[in-house]
Specification:
Thrombin, subunit H; 7-stranded mixed beta sheet; 4-stranded antiparallel beta sheet; globular
Length: 540
């Protein structure tokens, strides 16, 4: 890695502050991990949060709360959470049989079942196009729509959480393998699980969606089996604070939550509390995990009402700060697209209409480069931007990092193209920040970088507008030299109409297969919501 240039641009000269090093935790290699694993996982919208010019003050993520303790298998693979927190003596509440009625079937207004729809699509596919492996409908009765968190991969299971249910499905055929019913709404969750397939979600304390309900219960779940493990309620007695909108992340065996001044860390394997808010006047907006844990931090400025932004590397086990990078005044952290090396999207101004910029750091937190896009404004896609749920700091797609060639691939802002939109992919030299090349997306389609694999950036190609009938979406690749995007997995043109219904989907890809998940379910009727297609898998 080349020597860092002088500290400038988005980082005034600042010496990293070392701390006491502990075990930083293991990388998250899971099959759908972003940047650190074979699956590119973006990152997870309803009523827009108030725009106040700051993510923590206007776009805070809802935390996936968690509860419980006792569970009981009801039927085939259905678990029901019935208890409160684990007792001090280590005993868990006795599981009780669910008295809740079965979900009513939906008399569909759609003419085809998901299986029949997949079969019809496959009949129309052309040579070289991948087949649709399966389509999954919502099937969860939700009140006035709901947001989905996930998907998370553990072995042959893909899991998601929505409303008061966490469900696991077979990656092979989409059949439901287990379902865990929760007593209250899910309100937050990490973007990626642990390497051994565990996730910790957050649950609201109250059964109502009242704004006073807090996301302060944590529940660990084994994604392979759907069994609920430990649970804990975050202590708010000492500080009478609000814990409604929070950010979650996993790094090694540590899960963190942060937001509105809170910062807590627990060990995923056993639920032990590890550390809390760091000392001093600064407040944590949220953490990002993976092989390295980073935090977005707000500190009081010199002038009254002024806020200084910082990025800190944190030891996941001890909570100590290993280095600090000061963001240029007037800018704030919008998203992290990589933690190793740190690649940070910054924003100045409101969420809509604000100015975007990128900062690339060295491994020690010193400033490395500020890619200069010129008129090619970068734009990440962040499922959750218009909802106050599931917007973690590492949830966005639209950038990919290749450390071997020091290349940063970035999607540009979408522009209108008929009844659809299009954009470009721009590559930057991370050492200098200079633009290397720009490649346009096909007409009426967009390209969104997911991650780098085998020296190429893998990108999701959206389906074209309805007037274009001979092509579909898929997974494309670009190398460090640019050129014409090459197909990796071609989704069938016959699936384009179905794929278009997945508005800004969460996209995963690995082993010659791709998976799309709808981040929100919102229909005009309960029946429509029950029948909405929420996941679709492609590949032979």
């Amino acid at each position: 890695m080349s020597q860092p240039p002088p500290q400038e641009g988005f980082g005034a000269p600042y010496e990293p502050r070392p701390g006491v090093y502990g075990d930083p935790g293991q990388p998250q290699p899971g099959p759908y991990g972003q940047q650190s694993g074979p699956y590119g996982q973006p990152p997870q919208p309803q009523i827009p949060p108030p725009s106040t010019g700051g993510r923590s003050r206007g776009r805070l993520v809802g935390l996936v709360a968690a509860v419980l303790a006792g569970v009981l298998v009801i039927g085939a693979g259905v678990w029901f959470v019935v208890g409160g927190d684990d007792e001090p003596d280590g005993k868990k509440p006795v599981a009780k049989e669910s008295t809740a009625p079965k979900q009513p079937g939906a008399g569909s207004s759609r003419k085809k079942s998901p299986a029949a729809e997949a079969a019809e699509i496959n009949k129309g596919r052309k040579e070289g196009e991948a087949k649709v492996r399966w389509i999954q409908k919502n099937g969860v009765d939700v009140p006035v729509g709901a947001s989905a968190l996930g998907p998370w991969i553990a072995g042959g299971i893909v899991a998601k959480a929505m409303y008061r249910t966490v469900s696991g499905y077979s990656l092979e055929d989409g059949s439901q393998k287990w379902s865990l019913r929760l007593p209250t709404d899910v309100c937050a969750a990490p973007t990626r699980p642990t390497a051994d397939g565990k996730i910790v979600i957050g649950l609201l304390t109250e059964t109502s969606a009242d704004v006073d309900a807090n996301c302060d219960k944590l529940q660990m779940i084994d994604l392979a089996t759907g069994e609920a493990g430990w649970s804990v309620t975050i202590d708010r007695v000492v500080r009478n604070d609000v814990l409604r909108y929070v950010v979650m992340a996993i790094s090694g065996d540590v899960v963190t939550i942060g937001g509105l001044g809170r910062a807590e860390a627990y060990r995923v394997s056993d639920g032990k509390h590890l550390w809390g808010k760091p000392p001093g006047p600064c407040e944590v907006e949220g953490f990002v995990g993976g092989s390295v844990m980073l935090a977005s931090v707000h500190c009081p400025g010199q002038s009254k009402g002024e806020v200084d932004e910082e990025v800190r590397r944190i030891d996941p086990v001890t909570g100590r700060t290993l280095w600090t990078y000061k963001v240029r005044k007037g800018w704030e952290v919008d998203a992290f697209h990589s933690v190793d090396p740190p690649v940070i999207f910054l924003r100045k101004g409101p969420l809509v209409g604000g100015t975007s910029a990128i900062a690339v750091l060295n491994d020690d937190g010193t400033f490395r480069s500020r890619p200069a896009p010129g008129s090619d404004a970068p734009e990440g896609r962040c499922p959750g931007r218009e909802r106050q749920l599931g917007w973690n700091l590492d949830i966005c797609t639209g950038a990919a990092v290749d450390t071997d060639t020091d290349t940063l691939y970035v999607a540009t802002k979408h522009r209108s193209a008929g009844r659809s939109s299009t954009n470009d992919v721009v590559a930057f030299d991370m050492s200098t920040g200079k633009k290397k090349w720009k490649v346009p997306s096909p007409a009426t389609q967009t390209l969104m970088p997911l991650r780098v694999e085998g020296g190429r950036a893998l990108m999701y190609l959206s389906p074209p507008d309805p007037k274009t009938e001979d092509v579909g979406g898929g997974i494309m690749a670009l190398g460090p030299q640019g050129g014409t995007p090459q197909p990796v997995l071609r989704h069938p043109a016959s699936a384009a109409a179905t794929e278009r219904a997945f508005d800004e989907p969460i996209v995963l890809h690995a082993d010659g297969r791709s998976l799309l998940m709808l981040p929100d379910v919102l229909g005009e009727t309960d029946e429509e919501e029950m029948e909405m297609r929420t996941m679709i898998a492609f590949g032979d």
